[in-house]
Design a protein that fits this description.
Layout (H helix, E strand, L loop, with lengths): L1 E12 L10 E14 L8 H14 L8 E5 L9 H16 L6 H16 L5 H8 L2 E5 L2 E5 L5 E6 L7 H9 L6 H17 L2 H17 L5 H12 L3 E4 L11 E5 L3 H10 L4 E5 L6 E2 L1
Antiparallel strand pairs: 1-2, 1-10, 2-3, 2-4, 4-5, 6-8, 6-9, 7-8
The chain binds (3R)-3-hydroxy-3-methyl-5-(phosphonooxy)pentanoic acid (PMV).
The site of (3R)-3-hydroxy-3-methyl-5-(phosphonooxy)pentanoic acid has 17 residues, from helix 4 and helix 5.
């Protein structure tokens, strides 16, 4: 039995701007997609399967893709990089099944090809984060590994966005120029704050970063209300990923010195909540 996992990711800052060549701070997290070859194939995630199977048949001299199972500890389509993690885990498992020479850069490139099918013009940040893991500053294919003394965060699910990432990129496009410079500076300040373990600064930067994301129109009403509540509880909170406006905006990334306060808030408001850790390993055999 061959089993591979790839982690989910969160955007600490820089989402959307990274599509226009600016840096994004992204981390692999301890939620994951698990792919097992050699068991009876279930039929979940048909688009993901079809895309990767076709990609594999096109790129390698193989006749038939084996059955595999996909399991996930994270919700799909909520800004956690499910499509990238699922793609990477399937590709990694198939590389091993077909005894193809292990090449993480090639796996990353193929995962990026799959991301293009799902998202149109992705930056490549999601696939790079889930394949290589860790905390990274990503900028048009360039990867700078980063370190952080702050590694415990909380996610609250504001609901699955109705729009695709592709649609959200299109929505953000007309206003993105107004935030590019400021967001880039914030991203570099965040990198320093995390490296130094400066919680106060991190919370301030999350607030400013979130304000920029609101400005480009990617935050829906539901997420906005939750974020306002969380800010009044003295948390740093922002959407993470493409966002959404018609209904949910995906996962809200939260930092609070006292996580219990946030867990209580989520419980009182019946919101799905995850406690996560940053800088997880990337694609790996289980
Ligand atoms: O698809 P998501 O929600 O993981 O968002 C990815 C981040 C974007 O910057 C919006 C798109 C990209 O390709 O970087």
């Amino acid at each position: 039995m061959i089993q591979f996992s790839a982690p989910g990711k969160i955007h600490l800052l820089g989402e959307h701007c990274v599509v226009y060549g600016k840096p994004a701070l992204i981390s692999a997290i301890d939620l994951k997609v698990l792919v097992t070859v050699g068991t009876n194939s279930d039929e979940n995630y048909p688009l993901l399967r079809q895309t990767i199977n076709n990609l594999f048949l096109k790129n390698f001299k193989v006749k038939k893709i084996p059955d595999y199972e996909i399991a996930s500890t994270m919700p799909a389509g909520s800004g956690l990089g499910f499509s990238a993690a699922g793609s990477a885990a399937i590709i990694g498992a198939l590389f091993t099944h077909f005894k193809i020479d292990w090449d993480l850069k090639l796996i990353n490139r193929l995962t990026f090809e799959a991301e293009k099918v799902f998202h149109g013009t992705p930056s490549g940040g999601d696939n790079t984060s889930v394949v290589f893991g860790g905390l990274i500053l990503f900028q048009t294919g360039m990867i700078i590994p980063a370190t952080s003394k702050i590694n415990d965060f909380i996610l609250i699910n504001s609901g699955k966005p109705e729009e695709s990432t592709k649609e959200m990129i299109a929505i953000a496009k007309s206003k993105i120029a107004s935030i590019l410079a400021d967001h880039e500076a914030l991203t570099s300040h965040l990198l320093a704050a995390m490296r130094d373990g400066d919680e106060k600064k991190l919370i301030e930067i999350f607030k400013k970063g979130q304000a920029n994301l609101e400005k480009i129109g990617v935050v829906g009403k539901k997420a906005q209300k939750i974020i306002n509540d969380l800010e009044s509880l003295e948390a740093g909170a922002k959407i993470s990923g493409a966002g959404g406006v018609k209904s949910g905006s995906g996962m809200i990334l939260i930092y609070h010195k006292n996580p219990k306060k946030i867990l209580q808030y989520a419980k009182d408001n019946k919101l799905e909540v995850f406690q996560i850790k940053l800088s997880e390993e990337g694609l790996k055999q289980e």
